[in-house]
Predict the structure of Uridine kinase.
Amino acid sequence: MTKIELLDYLHNYLSDGQRHTVRIFGHGGAGKSTFAKELLEILPSDKVNLLETDPYIINGELRQLVSSKDFPNQKVTASMPVSHELNSLKRDITALQMGMDILTIDEPWTPSRILKGSKPILIIEGMSAGFLNEALFDLSIALVTDEETELNRRLERDTKVRGRHADFVLQTHLARRQQYETYYKSYEDSADIIISQINNQIITTFKN
């Protein structure tokens, strides 16, 4: 199935007049934000909320207070559950599902805004969503890609959008990938749909 066909399938799935909560998750640089925005563009703006989960990632300075038993000399990355404010994220998702409005968390690259609980479609995008119980969502989509593509995408995004130095991205890349393989990858098994982007080829797999 091509990306266009998948987006068409999702449009039909989400256009039945019912309330839906969709999570889009995966490792850094997997293409989550791009795919979420593409999905958002084909849905009526008055029917859908997009909750980005990057603001629920704990500050890197605080993450230095803990260490990984498997990689004791590495800084703890977002591939571990301890790096995320999961209770706060679950609280905000549940509030929206119950029809309540929320104010999103302000970030330098994502200004705070109000999400309206009256909108029936809720898209949750980001790494944090992967650690939540799958029962919270009626559809889960995981995105994965190869190590080289991840690095190139992170270099492009983090230097231009997040103001980080290329040297920092390169230095942290190995730790991120190792911790992804050890701690995060297994969560992808809970996805209903997996979008694999390797060597510029996109393969979509429906697990159920």
About this structure: The mean pLDDT is 89. The longest helix spans residues 166-184. The chain has six helices and eight strands. The longest strand covers residues 20-26.
